[in-house]
Design goal:
mainly beta; ten-stranded mixed β-sheet; 6 helices
């Protein structure tokens, strides 16, 4: 649905030009003589493709509108593929390679162990009556017979089925109840059949528009067919006067009838109930419910990834608040919510006890009657409005436009206003903010996020009559600019208000545009953009009921910059394989601006940047030196309106040389140099046998340096060094502090104890255990640790044989530091991890954090029998531990010395935190529960600094705070419970929740898709 903003015309309804998709079906190792091919939009059921055909020689062409389609293909021998969804914007060739079928084998026996010959073993999809299952009539006729077989005299069977398709198998034979087996991959399946009953249902009339189905009572029927499958597997279209079920378990059944087409909005009717006895046949006569022939004008919302079960009890209303009938239909990508009203009566809003369903106002129509919908957490709100002018009555209706919600940029909620100005409403939770519109008043913008499952009172507000603006858009010479887009935004610290226009319009041939319904007394940013992309902005206030004139809103004519770039000759001589790859143009002083331009470099001619606004720009080049690609900052340049300027740039990368020494001796290894800007990319630099290195840097600055030595293998933190004069070699002196450790067991020296020294360093880019050194004590209980960086170190001593440990902190400086440790008390954390069924879980990561002045962290991996053991600080008391595995994630409190029996969560949810801010290799992420338990989520981090997300497939259902540790101070604050979260989320069992974070902000931006 596209909603026109005030001051703009409603967009014209246009049908996009069709595209041609040339589809080729391939099968490894053999040609394809004929193939079933279909295109399926995600909002259609599996059995109702938009287009399908039998392609001779595996080739066909579809002519369809641009959009998202899933390609389905099958060959006559049973090879089958439901391909992933593609977005097709233009005509193209599509090749689909079918995987070979996988062979299943098995047996069918009765409950006494005797073989059952002539039993039918089928893929369930082939047994469900079309169009009630996964296959269309055409697909079922083409491949359905290939997906079933009969057993031999000894009860054995073999069946080739599609690879990678999670489905189910059923076995049926005369006199027996259906047996069921769900499968993921090829296996040997043994079916056991129990004696069954037969039901013949005589209906008063054949009706191909009516479906009849059975639902088993919970008791006393014992059937292997899952409850969720029964109504579909036993469904029959009433095409004949009698319907037969020959393989039912004995017991009680309810018989229902309902129209096949959900758009009749007719609920299922209970025809009768029946009791079936084993080895008996029952015949029952019923009358089908009458069908109305009246056409219902309807629309639909496609709910991506949803299921009908999660929307149990949904109540839908239209824009006037009137209730609307609705029906669900499962699709290939989610659920289609049919609504018994035309789209003009929207926006539609539905609520359950926990969820709100709304139409996505920023989405374009998918087809003639389908719009994009979204399911979000339900919140409730209230507010009160009054008029600043008593002569203007408070309206009785309005619309609340929620912005940056889960799964959609916008959801509109109609509201009614009581006579006293009170408004109470259902709303989507956790949106970035809302704009309330009550004509003839100006819009009210609120930077509020409504929490889930709570009622939030937003306050009392005074509404002013809306203002108007007459805007004249010209170029720098005063010429009118036609067809310029003008957006009006409310100036605010709230990101949503700055990004989303309150109103927009387009200039006419004279360059004028008139925009109404603007909020009075607010500072408004009015931006005009020409068809070629250049823009300008002015800021104004409008008065209630008045028109403000802006003449002119001047857009400078675009400038052009032509750049010829080359590398400095001396640099090319030193690096003959070097080359320029890319030129980047940024507004000067605004790195990372949305106005950034990037053009590939060509040595054969200049690079031209078109459509630039006037002002200062800065050029940066990406160069390669044969092994690496690095940025080199070029010069700045000023552009005037309509100017075409030619610029010749000679790039002189900064090349530094230096030497790494330890105690005056050269050191071989890899030098890591990191800029304080995260955009700096400096590869590791090797040092040679003389400790010498050479590095190319993007700019003159101070850089953070550490060293990974080869002999011995160490990781040494150096700190910030100056790289500001390429003519002066950089002398990197590795740290040379030391610690003498004296370890005693009671009053005796502790010989053979393991001493570990670890340092945590704050690098400004994040926290990391920068260096860890491990040695053993001699017969006197002494140990010396050399070549340590200055700063605080944590020294621990362990005696595993006697279960003893000790720890202390010491500051290392120029002179040797001394530490005296007395071993005491075991600090072992041990236990067994099991899944919800009690089976031991192997390969899970157990992480424990032991609080202290600086908390210590240790981890272990569970063994094959689910056991684990790791160390905790002696002074810790309780340690905060968590497990992370593919089977689930949960947090616990453990005490040293106990043998804990841990289990994975029985109630879990999937959590995705996308757009995780400022990710680098030094950062860690944690989930904190309301009772202070801590779960290490770093293992679930996916992506890089540009696009990163936490993807936790099964985390315990709970309320969690998402914490980011980016420095040593963060680490200390985390374990003290004072670190501010970057998000907070409540997870319910079985839920799939996604929250999206803005760059470096701490507010959740958007939640996508809620439920499995």
């Amino acid at each position: 649905m596209v909603n026109a903003l005030p001051g703009s015309a409603a967009p014209a309804s246009t049908t996009p030009a069709p595209i041609e998709l040339h589809v080729s079906i391939l099968s490894p190792g053999k040609p394809v003589d004929a193939a079933y091919v279909a295109l399926l939009p995600p909002w259609r059921p599996w059995s109702q493709p938009l287009a399908e055909t039998i392609a001779r020689n595996g080739q066909t062409t579809f002519r369809v509108s641009p959009g998202v389609y899933r390609v389905i293909a099958a060959t006559a021998d049973g090879n089958f593929l439901k391909d992933r969804s593609y977005f097709f914007a233009e005509s193209r060739d599509v090749s689909v390679t079918l995987p070979p079928a996988v062979t299943f084998n098995g047996t069918v026996r009765d409950s006494d162990g005797h073989s059952v010959p002539h039993a039918t073993v089928s893929a369930v999809d082939a047994r469900v009556d079309a169009p009630l299952g996964q296959l269309s009539e055409m697909a079922r006729a083409f491949i359905g017979n290939q997906w079933q077989t009969t057993t031999a005299a000894d009860g054995t069977w073999s069946l080739a089925l599609p690879a990678g398709e999670k489905s189910a198998l059923s076995a049926e034979a005369a006199g027996y109840a259906t047996a069921w087996h769900e499968h993921d991959s090829a296996s040997n399946v043994a079916f056991t059949l129990k004696r069954g009953a037969q039901l013949v249902l005589h209906v008063d009339r054949p009706d191909p528009h009516m479906v009849v189905t059975l639902v088993a009572a919970e008791a006393p029927i014992v059937t292997t067919i899952p409850a969720g499958w029964q109504s579909q597997y036993w469904a029959r279209v009433a095409r004949a006067p009698s319907l037969t079920w020959a393989n039912l378990p004995a017991g009680d059944y309810s018989i229902y009838a309902q129209p096949v087409d959900p758009k009749t909005f007719t609920a299922a009717s209970l025809l009768t109930t029946v009791t079936l006895a084993a080895d008996a046949k029952r015949e029952v006569s019923v009358a089908l419910p009458s069908m109305t022939n009246d056409k219902i004008s309807s629309s639909a919302l496609y709910l991506n990834g949803s299921t009908g079960d999660e929307l149990d009890g949904l109540k839908v209303t239209d824009a006037s608040g009137a209730p609307v009938r609705h029906a669900f239909e499962e699709t290939s990508g989610g659920v289609l919510l049919h609504i018994a009203a035309p789209a003009e009566r929207g926006p539609f809003v539905g609520t359950t006890a926990n969820d709100l369903v709304g139409s996505a106002t920023d989405a374009t129509p998918m087809d003639a009657h389908t719009m994009e919908g979204v399911v979000v957490d339900l919140a409730r709100g209230g507010m009160q409005i009054r008029s600043s002018d008593g002569s203007v009555a408070i309206p009785r209706a309005g619309v609340l436009a929620f912005h940056d919600c889960k799964g959609s940029a916008g959801i509109d909620v109609p509201v009614s206003v009581a006579k006293d100005g009170t408004i109470r409403f259902d709303a989507p939770a956790n949106c970035a903010g809302l704009v309330a519109r009550f004509t003839p008043f100006g819009p009210l913008t609120l930077a509020r996020s409504l929490p889930t499952a709570q009622t939030t009172w937003l306050g009392e507000f005074t509404l002013f009559q809306s203002g108007k603006a007459a805007i004249h858009v010209t170029d720098d010479e005063g010429h009118a600019i036609a067809d310029a887009t003008v957006d009006v935004r409310a100036k605010s610290t709230a990101a949503y208000a700055d990004e989303r226009p309150l109103a927009h319009g387009a200039t006419g041939p004279d360059g004028w545009v008139y925009i109404g319904d603007l909020p009075a007394h607010r500072m408004l940013a009015m931006s005009a953009t020409t068809p070629d992309g250049t823009s300008a902005t002015v800021e104004r206030r409008v008065l209630p009921g008045a028109e403000t004139t802006i003449d002119p809103l001047r857009i400078d004519r675009p400038a052009t910059l032509v750049v010829r770039a080359e590398l400095d000759a001396s640099f090319r001589e030193r690096f003959p394989q070097s080359a320029i790859r890319l030129l980047v143009l940024d507004p000067d002083g605004d790195a990372g601006s949305h106005d950034q331009r990037r053009e590939p470099f060509s040595a054969s001619g200049p690079v031209t940047f078109h459509g630039l606004h006037s002002g200062d720009w800065r050029i940066t080049a990406l160069i390669s030196t044969g092994k690496n690609v690095q940025p080199v900052v070029g010069k700045s340049i000023h552009l005037d309106p309509a100017e075409t300027k030619h610029l010749d740039v000679v790039l002189e990368p900064y090349v530094f040389t230096g030497r790494v020494t330890l105690n005056g001796k050269p050191i071989r290894g890899n030098l890591d140099i990191r800029g304080v800007q995260l955009t700096d990319t400096v590869p590791s630099v090797p040092t040679d046998a003389n400790g010498e290195f050479q590095v190319i840097l993007p700019r003159l600055d101070r850089y953070l340096v550490d060293m990974r030595t080869f002999e011995p293998a160490r990781y040494l933190w150096v700190g910030a060094l100056s790289f500001e004069n390429p003519a002066q070699p950089v002398n990197v002196v590795l740290p040379a502090g030391s610690i003498h450790v004296d370890v005693r067991r009671g009053d005796s020296p502790a010989a053979g104890a393991i001493v570990t020294a670890s340092q945590l360093a704050d690098t400004n880019l994040g926290m990391e255990k920068q260096d860890t050194v491990e040695v053993a004590t001699d017969e006197r209980g002494d140990a010396d640790i050399a070549n340590l960086a200055a700063g605080m170190w944590t020294v621990t001593a362990t005696d595993a044989e006697h279960g003893l440990a000790a720890a202390s902190e010491v500051r290392v400086g120029a002179s040797s530091a001394e530490v005296h440790l007395r071993l005491s008390d075991t600090r072992s954390l041990r236990g067994t991890l099991r899944d919800v069924t009690g089976v031991p879980v192997a390969g899970a990561i157990v992480t424990c954090v032991s609080p202290g002045a600086i908390a210590s962290m240790s981890s272990a991996t569970t063994a094959d029998d689910g056991t684990f053991e790791l160390e905790a600080s002696t002074s810790a008391g309780e340690s905060l531990c968590s497990v992370a595995s593919s089977s689930g994630a949960q947090a616990y409190r453990l005490r040293a010395g106990q043998n804990a029996d841990l289990s994975l969560p029985a109630d879990s949810a999937e959590l995705i935190v996308s757009h995780v801010p400022n990710v680098n290799r030094l950062m860690t992420f944690w989930l904190l529960s309301t009772d202070g338990r801590l779960l290490n989520a770093t293992r679930y981090l996916r992506g890089d600094a540009r696009s990163a997300a936490l993807v936790i497939p099964q985390v315990a259902a709970d309320t969690w705070k998402v914490m980011r540790v980016a420095s040593l101070q963060d680490w200390v604050t985390l374990t003290s419970g004072l670190l501010e979260p970057i998000a907070e989320v409540t997870l319910h069992a079985g839920e799939r929740k996604q929250i999206e974070l803005r760059g470096g902000d701490t507010e959740p931006k958007r939640e996508k898709e809620n439920s499995r």
